[in-house]
Amino acid sequence: MAERPQISGSLFKRLTAILIFGSMLLSIVLFFVVREFAARIAQAGQDSILEASVSSIIDAAVIRDGRVEVDFPYASFSMLDTDQNDRVFYAIRQDGQLLSGYKVIPQTDRLRTDSAFFETRILAQSKFRIASAQRVLIGSQRSTTVSVYVAQTQDSLSQTLKQISLNVGALCLVFFTFTAILSYIAALATVRPLSRLASSVQRRSGEDLRPFKQPVPSEMVPLVSSLNSLMNRLDQTLTRSEDFIAEAAHRVRTPLATVRSYAETTLQRVTKSENRNALKAMMRAVDESSRAAGQLLDHAMITFRADHLDKQQVDLSGIVEDLATSLAPIAEMKDLKIVLRTDGPVHVEGDPILLQNAFRNVLDNALKYAPFETEVTIQVTDSPRPTVTISDLGAGFPNDEIQALTKRFRRGKNAKNSIGSGLGLTIAQDVALAHGGSVALTNGKSGGACVTFYL
Amino acid sequence: MRYFLSVILAFCSSLCAAQVWEDQRIFGAAEATQQLRILSSTDTSFLVPVIDAFLEDRPNLKIEYLVHGTSTIDLLYRQNPGDFDLVISSAMDLQLKLVNDGFGKQVDDIDLPKSAKWRDTLFAFTKEPAAIVLNRAAFPNGDLPKTRQDLITALRNQPDVFKDKIATYDVRTSGLGYLFATQDARSSETFWRLMEVMGGLGTRLYCCSGQMIDGLVLGDIAVAYNVLGSYAEARAKTEPALAVILPSDFPTTMMRTIFASDAAQTNLEAEAFIRFLIEQQRDDGRNITGLPSVMSFGTQQSIPLNPALLSYLDALKRRTFIEAWENALVQ
Ligand SMILES: Nc1ncnc2c1ncn2[C@@H]1O[C@H](COP(=O)(O)OP(=O)(O)OP(=O)(O)O)[C@@H](O)[C@H]1O
Ligand SMILES: [Mg+2]
């Protein structure tokens, strides 16, 4: 059976995690960048109003009768009205001396005449944004510098910022959700060719070793091409192994057959009884070896084929009939009668070579272990499931060994005088198992061994 | 001007220990342990029903109600903000400046339109126009002036009738008078022409609406300009000689405001009083003080509660304005 590979994480999960984490990071960055940007714009808005206020006040400054008068317009302060009713402080100074307004606003030496100077400060326990500017007034005697400071709390600004933060937050959340869904889809799309390949590998039958030809993404080309080359090599190895087994069987059997025929010819010519006995023992050993070699190779072939079952539609009755015909000469030698009972063709999915081999081994046993002039019965039925039963009228399986007889090289104690390797029932069982079926060994009530294939 | 302020300051600081009030009354049980001190420019009679109703289910509380002019209130309060729990004044500009300077305590969730409160600290509870109040006797043919221009014409036509019989606020001492005058000046040049005409006829200057109305009733005065319409209306019910005219060219309307002092100890009761007053003052039909609520006069805008009110309180602007006003009126 295929071994389950070790798992180290999941490509899909890793990809999704990376993408979602990335979009989260991006959303957070986006949130702060947009908020910062909005905050600057909002601050610039407040600054420009403060600057307008400062310049409207400073423009109203005149020297009249040697005295500075600043009859600034009502709008200078009404323009500072905000939604949150921000507090307003201001100061008008002449050469640094407070003329009117709030003395809590500290003087700054960074006053300019062309544009306003801005700073944020805590005044009377509240945060104020202060705009200031100065102007030089030329009087008849001397010139004097008037400076104007206008300060405003930032309640409305922070309210606006809070609102902006909420909106930007919602926007980023939507962005994040959207990108997270996209990430998921992207990860899914990325691993889909992989799972498609996996399922197409799975769907293939065992002996289908053709290369994969469906188009795959370029990243998967190395994987698929090495898979293809692996399958190509496997295909070659398989063909070679099959050839090798057939070749090996041939190579072993041929010289053994030669040895046996020499021994037989020699036996005709030898008269001395001890020599004859030696020759007979030698012939038996050769038979034993030949049988063993044949069975071993059959077993190897079955083991090999079982892994790459060449399934096709087969008729069990047909196989059994052919088998009976081919073994008829052997049966005749023992005056055995092979009785066939079939109710028409019984079709199953299977490998005909393997099935024939299995049935032959069991029929061979029946012919080998049943007494002369008895009947061997082969029954094929279709229901409740396809079954082949081969029974004889001999002594049956030794009762105490019946469970173990299907093991490799296991022979019963009734087999002392016969030639055999103990692999026949093993082959029968392996074939049945390879077809998803089973083999049952039983003894009839009135004696006789009975082997049943359930397929 | 500086001189004048310092005189008031000196006057006050010397007398503060035994301050002389326009009116001073204590409501509630004498043995009550808790006390609210209300500093107010509003005549006691208008607030009596509110205070009585408020004290009904507060047996342990007494209320000291102290009445003075708007400017004095501002000075007194700034000197000892911890001594007073509530400040009521019709001088919106002074009130807004006090709150702007951080003296007020925020009271949340007061059910008023946005235009009637500032920073959830200063709350308006009346809407009162400035009126021209006449003694009908001075207009025998019944042809009462409807606008400031009408009044100018009437004064010019019969200078001998009105000579020394015209009254208005002394804007130098009355915060409300100053507010009305500055807002008038902002609205139209007619104001300055009227002031010049009035100056030419020898106008008498008053600290308060009540005294001007008294003068009208007695017949000492024929015309009073920028009198509180609500006070005059109240008196006109019993004095048929009074005619209250809301000038139709441009109305000047102020809102009476209240705030709780942040420095005072009795904050919770002060908050409760504001809530109670605003609640009782809401309904147009039966506002508890008898003064028109902030919803009255339809869409007619009052002077808006916004930082622009600080403008004329600026020392330089005030100096310029008072000089112009004195030039026109005090000849
Ligand atoms: N029909 C039968 N009657 C009695 N005993 C049987 C029968 N078939 C098999 N056996 C017993 O089961 C044993 C195992 O049979 P199996 O076919 O595996 O080996 P084998 O016949 O001895 O050798 P070979 O591999 O040459 O067939 C046999 O040795 C024999 O003892
Ligand atoms: Mg056998």
Short account of what is shown:
The complex is a heterodimer of chains A (455) and B (331). In chain A, 51% of the residues lie in helices and 20% in strands.
* Helix fraction bin of chain B: 25-40%
Structural class computed from helices and strand pairing of chain B: alpha/beta
The low-confidence parts of chain A are none
**Structural class determined from secondary elements of chain A:** alpha+beta
Bound molecules: adenosine-5'-triphosphate, magnesium ion
Number of helices of chain A: 8
Per DSSP, the total helix count of chain B is 12
Observed structural traits:
heterodimer, A: 455 residues, alpha+beta, five-stranded antiparallel sheet, five-stranded mixed sheet, 51% helix, B: 331 residues, alpha/beta, D-Maltodextrin-Binding Protein, domain 2, 2 domains, eight-stranded mixed sheet, six-stranded mixed sheet, 12 helices, 14 strands, globular, binds adenosine-5'-triphosphate, binds magnesium ion
